[in-house]
Structure formats: structure tokens, C-alpha cells
Specification:
By secondary structure, the protein is an alpha/beta fold. The protein has a single domain, classed as Nucleotidyltransferase, domain 5 (2-Layer Sandwich), CATH 3.30.420. α2 links the parallel β3 and β4. α3 crosses α5. The longest helix is centred in the middle third of the chain and has 13 residues.
């Protein structure tokens, strides 16, 4: 899965791509074809785990493929969700190339316990999870001023800093 973002005064969601069962070379080629190979790519901490077959980490293989890799700090899921909430309200997205990714973000939610009739603290793992996790690592990785603060994540952010709905924030 890959998501490219250009950062200026506000983050810009440029593109979204998801696939399964493909080699790292497949994703490197996609990034090169789109011209995103020269950007910084923020990946989760487990990208540094060494593969048994090669003895190399995925980070090393991606760097050998010409990508600039930054590893996001390891944070708990709730802290990462807070990072997304703070980050998302300032983001803009290309409507035509990020529609699937935005639908995933809109559908990311907590598990519901039917027996207890309450929401659990952990997110539901479904079709929207991988995209939301990738966006979470992006928000964590771009949080250069360490402004992630814990709060109650049961209250949704649905507006930007200027009080407009983020759902209408297309360029």
C-alpha cells in the first residue's frame, strides 16, 4: 500500500494505491512511474525487521531500489489515532486520485461488543484498516514538533482549523 503526500504549508494527499501479494519491486516501480520515488517515504517501525530468506530488511531493499525511507516512531494505536486527528484537519486531497483512501479513512472505526453493547478501545480490523494504518504512520512521521497529545478518541474531528468540514477539502 502506498500513499504519497507533498508537504508545504498544508499536507497534500496526492495519490492512493493499495495492492496485495506483490513484491517490493512492484511498489518501487509504481512510485517511479508516478514520479514519487524522490519523495520521502514514511514507513512503520517493522520495516527494519530482517527477512529470513535474504537477511536484509525491507527498508534496506527499498533503499537499494532508490527510495528515501524514514521510519516513523513506534507509538500506540490510540496515540497514532490522535496524530491523525490533528494532522487530518489540515490536509487537502486530490479528489480524483484519493477517493478510495478517503473512503477507508471515513470507515475506520472501533470494534463494537454486542454482548456488552459498547465500543471497544481497539479499532475494527476490516477492509479500511490497512489504509488507515498507513495514514496513521504518515501522521506520526510528519509530527516533527511532537505535538501528539492523548485525548478521548471517541469524539470525532469533523472540521478543519477554519471550521469547514474536512470532507469538502478537495483541490
Amino acid at each position: 500500500m502506498s500513499s504519497a503526500v507533498k508537504v508545504s504549508s498544508n499536507p497534500l494527499g496526492m495519490d492512493y494505491y493499495e495492492n496485495a501479494g506483490q513484491s517490493l519491486e512492484h511498489y518501487i516501480t509504481w512510485l517511479q512511474e508516478k514520479g514519487y520515488d524522490k519523495y520521502e517515504h514514511i514507513l512503520p517501525h517493522d520495516v527494519e525487521v530482517r527477512e529470513l530468506g535474504t537477511g536484509k530488511s525491507r527498508k534496506e531493499m527499498l533503499e537499494e531500489g532508490g527510495l528515501n525511507i524514514t521510519v516513523a516512531p513506534k507509538l500506540g494505536v490510540e496515540d497514532g489515532i490522535q496524530a491523525v486527528r490533528q494532522f487530518l484537519k489540515n490536509c487537502y486531497f486530490h479528489e480524483s486520485t484519493t477517493q478510495t483512501g478517503l473512503n477507508c479513512l471515513r470507515n475506520y472505526r472501533r470494534q463494537f461488543n454486542e454482548k456488552l453493547n459498547t465500543y471497544m478501545e481497539k479499532p475494527l480490523h476490516d477492509w479500511s484498516s490497512h489504509c488507515a494504518d498507513a495514514f496513521r504512520y504518515l501522521a506520526i512521521g510528519l509530527n516533527t514538533n511532537n505535538s501528539i497529545k492523548r485525548s478521548d478518541w471517541s469524539t470525532p474531528y469533523d472540521t478543519t482549523l477554519n471550521k469547514e468540514s474536512y470532507k469538502q477539502q478537495y483541490i
